[in-house]
Write a structure and sequence with these properties.
The structure is a single chain. The chain has about 190 residues and is mainly alpha-helical. The protein has ten helices and no strands. It has one domain: Hypothetical protein af1432 (Orthogonal Bundle).
């Protein structure tokens, strides 16, 4: 089956390419973690969540990385010109992947994966949660280099919280911030 090539590609693209990892993580693994977290959040949300849409968005949110690789945030957001070029590159890659494996619906789903709908905001929170989990894993394995990523994740969570439109999701953000704060405090005592 042709789809095996995409699965193999996602399993071979390494995340955290800018950092040493005691436990390497692939884009496929990250995607599974995001999808499971998204489903858990969606199951406990008081508002109506379209589970099929949520699952499709969480499964496809990083599909372009089979072509682009995992581009680190410091590179992605170095300046506005580089950001724009990377966004265009990711867009072209997502179009190619959608066309090759799924159809136009997948590209549309990818583009809206983290929009302001309840499903999009859940995917955004689940994506941040997957990073919190990775930081915890690496620190538990003695990789203190991951402490450097805590501030970036905190700022991402703060940005999500300040811009969230579905207020039922704020408790999930607070839980993540509490988890991260506990990790930061545990490291300082």
């Amino acid at each position: 089956m042709k789809i095996f090539k995409l699965i193999d590609g996602l399993s071979n693209v390494r995340r955290w390419s800018h950092a040493y990892c005691h436990k390497p993580e692939s884009v496929l693994e990250h995607t599974a973690v995001v999808s499971i977290i998204a489903l858990a959040i969606g199951s406990h949300c008081s508002e109506e969540v379209n589970t099929a849409k949520l699952l499709a968005r969480s499964l496809l949110h990083d599909m372009e990385e089979v072509v682009t690789g995992d581009i680190p945030n410091p590179t992605k957001y170095h300046n506005s010109r580089i950001s724009a070029e990377i966004k265009e590159f990711e867009d072209i890659a997502a179009q190619e992947i959608a066309e090759m494996y799924f159809g136009d619906w997948a590209y549309t789903t990818w583009r809206s994966a983290k929009d302001t709908s309840i499903e999009g905001e859940i995917v955004r929170i689940a994506d941040a949660a997957a990073v919190v989990i990775k930081i915890q894993q690496e620190k538990a394995l003695g990789n203190n280099a991951f402490k450097a990523f805590e501030e970036n994740v905190w700022n991402s969570l703060l940005d999500i919280k300040q811009n969230i439109t579905n207020l039922c999701l704020i408790p999930f953000i607070h839980d993540l911030m509490d988890t991260l704060t506990g990790e930061i405090n545990d490291g300082n005592t």
